[in-house]
Amino acid sequence: MKATLIGATGLIGGELLPLLLNDPAFEKVTLLLRRPLELTHPKLEKKLVDFNDADSMLIALYEPDVIFCTVGTTRKKVKNDHAAYRKVDYDIPVHAARFGKMNGCRKFILVSALGAKKGSNNFYLDLKGQVEEDVTATGIPSIHFMRPSILGGNRTESRPGEKAGIFIVKAISFLLPSRLKLSPASMVANAMVSAAKSDKEGVFIYQNTEMKDLNSKFKI
User: Fold this and answer.
1) Interacting residues of 112 by C-beta distance below 8 A, sequence separation 6+
2) Which 3 state secondary structure label does DSSP give 175?
3) Which of 50, 56, 106, 188 is such that its CA lies 20 to 30 A from the CA of 171?
4) What is the DSSP letter of 19?
5) CB-CB contact of 196 with 107 (8 Å)
6) What residues are labeled active site?
7) What is the C-alpha to C-alpha distance for residues 70 and 200, in angstroms, rounded to an integer?
8) Cα 183 to Cα 12: distance, rounded to the nearest angstrom
9) Rounded Cα distance, 31 and 48, in Å
10) What fold, for 2-210?
């Protein structure tokens, strides 16, 4: 497969990229990037993209078999500006799905959020629900939404609030249902690769249990 990855420098994207590069199921891996990335590999292609420019995205998304999208921002980064938040968490994945479909994409695999629901009173969950609905509307044959809980892993940036959340979730993990337990970024990344190897068509949603089950069905 020819894979395109959007969000390679993030927590999940950083786990996902080496999996794709080392897996013979993927003959080519194209990264869509805002800024240069110092990484080379025989299978790797890097494209600098202006994600606010539709033509730039359309051209970059040339004949992908599968698109992996792991982009996401935080309220702190956008200074609590909902419009700026939407440009990243909604515009990028939805445009990627639409333009990917135009260029022959057969599989779209997106990191969403636990509790995503259009119409939710929570801005973030409402936005993620809108994304899922509009990505589904593109008609890409195979769509997979990963809905992790609080993510576990080593970030390059400091997120004190997230660290506190991870500490609390770990402390009370034995009391929590599976969907609310910590979601290791490595588990999510492996599930995304496994989903890409599935031949199922339709729209699929994965929480912690489903991601673990998916990984057990495919050799990574």
Assistant:
1) 128, 131, 132, 145, 146, 147, 205
2) helix
3) 188
4) H
5) yes
6) 124, 128
7) 21
8) 11
9) 8
10) Rossmann fold (3.40.50)
Work out the burial of residue 197: count CB atoms within 10 Å of its CB; fewer than 13 is exposed, 13-18 middle, 19 or more buried.
Answer: middle
Backbone angles phi, psi at 108, to 5 degrees: -130, 125
* Amino acid type, 98: R
CA 163 to chain centre: 21
Radius of gyration of the chain (CA): 16
Helix (H) or strand (E) holding 73: none
Please report, for the chain, the start and end positions of each structural domain, with discontinuous segments joined by +. Answer: 2-210
Contact 129, 118 (CB under 8 A): yes
In order along its 220 residues, the chain shows pLDDT tens digits of 999 999 999 999 999 999 999 999 999 999 999 999 999 999 999 999 999 999 999 999 999 999 999 999 888 888 889 999 999 999 999 999 999 999 999 999 999 999 999 999 999 999 999 999 999 999 999 999 999 998 886 655 555 555 555 555 555 555 556 666 788 999 999 999 999 999 999 999 999 999 999 988 765 5
Query: Do the beta carbons of residue 88 and residue 69 sit within 8 Å?
Result: no
Distance (Å, rounded) from C-alpha 67 to C-alpha 32?
Answer: 11
User: What is d(CA 185, CA 167) in angstroms, rounded to the nearest whole number?
Assistant: 16
User: Hey, which residues does 47 pair with through a beta bridge?
Assistant: 32
For the record, the structure tokens of 139 come out as 């008609």
